[in-house]
Amino acid sequence: MGEKYADVIVDISHDKVDRPFRYRIPAELTGKVEAGVKVHVPFGKGNKELTGYVVGLFDSADYPEDKIKDICGVDDKDTTVEGTLINIAYWMKSHYGSTMITALKTVLPVKQKFKQLEKKKVVRLYDRDEIEKLILDYEKKRRNAGVRVLKALLDEEMLPYALIREKLNVSQSTLAALEKQNVIKIETEKYYRNPVKPISQRDTAKPLSDGQRRIVEDVINDYKNGKTGTYLIHGITGSGKTEVYLGIIEEMIKMGKQAIVLIPEIALTYQTLLRFYKRFGDRVSVMNSRLSGGEKYDQMERAKNGELDVIIGPRSALFTPFKDPGIIIIDEEHESSYKSENMPKYHARETAIQLAEIKGASVVLGSATPSLEAYYRADMGQYRLYKLNERLTGGSLPKVYTVDLREELKAGNRSIFSRKLKELIEMRLFSKEQIMLFINRRGYAGFISCRACGHVMKCPHCDVSLSEHRGGKLVCHYCGYEEMKPPGCPVCGSKYLMGFRAGTEQIEEAVHKEFPTAVTLRMDADSTKSKESYEKILSAFADGKADILVGTQMIVKGHDFPNVTLVGILAADLSLNQNDYRAGERTFQLLTQAAGRAGRGDKAGEVVIQTYQPEHYSIVHAANQDYEGFYAEEILYRELLMYPPAAHMLAVLVISAKEDEGEYITRRFSELIKQRFSDNKELYIIGPAQASLSKLNDMYRHVIYFKHKDYEKLVMIKDMLEAYSKEENLKYQNILYDFDPVNIY
Ligand code: ADP
Ligand code: ZN
Ligand code: ZN
Hints:
Elements: E1 5-10, E2 21-24, E3 38-43, E4 48-58, E5 73-75, H1 81-96, H2 100-107, E6 117-124, H3 128-140, H4 144-154, E7 158-160, H5 161-166, H6 172-180, E8 184-191, H7 210-224, E9 230-235, H8 241-254, E10 258-262, H9 270-280, E11 284-286, H10 293-304, E12 310-313, E13 325-331, H11 348-359, E14 362-367, H12 372-379, E15 384-388, E16 399-404, H13 405-410, H14 419-431, E17 434-438, E18 449-450, E19 467-469, E20 473-475, E21 482-484, E22 497-498, H15 504-514, E23 520-523, H16 531-542, E24 548-551, E25 564-569, H17 573-576, H18 583-595, E26 606-611, H19 617-623, H20 627-641, E27 648-656, H21 659-676, E28 684-696, E29 699-708, H22 711-727, E30 734-739
Parallel strand pairs: 9-14, 9-15, 10-12, 10-13, 11-12, 13-14, 16-26, 17-24, 17-25, 23-24, 25-26
Antiparallel strand pairs: 1-2, 1-4, 3-4, 3-5, 6-7, 6-8, 18-22, 19-20, 20-21, 27-29, 27-30, 28-29
This protein binds adenosine-5'-diphosphate and zinc ion (2 copies).
Residues 206-209, 212, 235, 237-243, 392-393 line the site of adenosine-5'-diphosphate.
């Protein structure tokens, strides 16, 4: 409080929106001017009065005191919803890097207006007896259309206009005549497009377990005491997290607050939505990419008008214009889809926490395998941590076998199925139980490992795996380190040093060869181009139309298959050896989730993890379903190498038409920052290097990474590079900033 200056962005339709302007806060407005508040300011040469939003408060002026203008007034009556969103856009712009206009486009509801839908209905004004009399009269006069309408209205007070016109084949003039006689009235009603089909079934709350109740009570009591914050629920699938969310939301609704529930799009199944609808009825709505523009627009309108209490959706649902949200829930908090792939590359978790701070709301995160970020913050005491350890619907944890593929090779088995997996598949085919075979296609772009000893070729500087390029070059995509692929394994000398190349199609073929009677279904990005085919494959499998479902990571989420008692993970190393620092975390998550698919029903499940590195901590801890054990080792690695969350990382990607341009710019970036930070020992610069995807759409991609414990230092670096790019007029190159990236470039 007591700041004397404010940054204001003027009217969002104005093209000068990209940068805020600093104004003086006159004494009489002190205390009234806060971030997000709507103000009136003089603008330009003529001092034309414009409206704007305050996006920051400062103690000092950024240019000569005598040129700074005063804010004229504060608009108290502003609905602040827009103000909040503008505020968050400004935060995103400064925190993640993008232009103000792009940030505003990300947070503000669809600009395009959609016409409000209208429905006409026919309301009966006569009572039943009068209608009956009139029918007799009309029958005599052979006014058949009129008779049809009247008969239909005998038992109904009102009917849809369209139904009468089309189904009863009644003309407009017949209805007009009836209206003139005051028999009926034609009314027009406006209504919103609603993606939710009305359901009459309702659910009431289940009596919560002690563990569940404690979380709900803590969150609500804290909130009532004005203590908002972030809560992390670490609970295995089926441990009752969703029931906790429902409990918290119910209490929030009682207090007149709204709730935002984020769910990864892929897990946004009808079953999940149904639970919310049954609990909260038509005051719940959904946002997702399948909605039409009009549907999206109307959900935003409903939220603004106070017709909704709960919105469920992916990342972007965060920006639902609620007046007074009390709680933001992020389910499956670890999912990488919470990070935006477009500028600004915001993370829904951090943005939700920022939004909650502005609005005085709390945030609840839930996951069976929390992200290192979330768990680290909980460990540091920034989030409150809760554990739910039991499955409430019974079903035991599966038995996990780890198979060492090196031993298979030694024993002369070159098939992609280990002997153990083969034996278990045969048993399931015999007992008519179902099997899921899982391969992680993501790491497909070639790491190199030894089939005999499991040794993986890694960068000596970054400890991530090297990628094979054409011509036998092995390249690190963080720092640019290169070496030629050796003729044999540097550890054991075996000549089986190669990439693992098996996609879902090859696996399906191999299944047919080994198990000719098995019926298979396949699910990957190719077989699920449309949303319907995704649902179709899953429901066919759920209906028992196949014995084996072969798929990528898509199959480990969503749907429950009670008859699946065996899950095979064909090559756990594929995700383990991805060329980035999150490989271990991703592998642990994938294996834990995949293993969790087995034995959801009454029958116990078994899981086979095939790997060349059975001793790797991600695999050992996943097999033991031991998150804490995994976390303890993974966080050491991150601390040692200064990777997030132990430190922060900024990736700067330069996309240019000419290869040497990108090379030059990233080198200049590196030199510039080295010079400015010459006395700062805590900054680490990696690269510049060619990006892993070094050319896309004929554009060259170069990347440079900065690591620092202090996030704000990285923001400074971004600002410096932005200023430099402007000075050097680098407008033909696309320069992208990504803070704490989830994927490498
Ligand atoms: P999660 O979100 O952690 O996967 P859910 O909330 O979906 O867990 O709960 C798993 C199952 O247990 C659901 O079928 C749910 O209806 C049931 N369940 C949750 N809480 C309770 C409870 N307190 N009493 C009885 N059943 C519960
Ligand atoms: Zn070897
Ligand atoms: Zn390297």
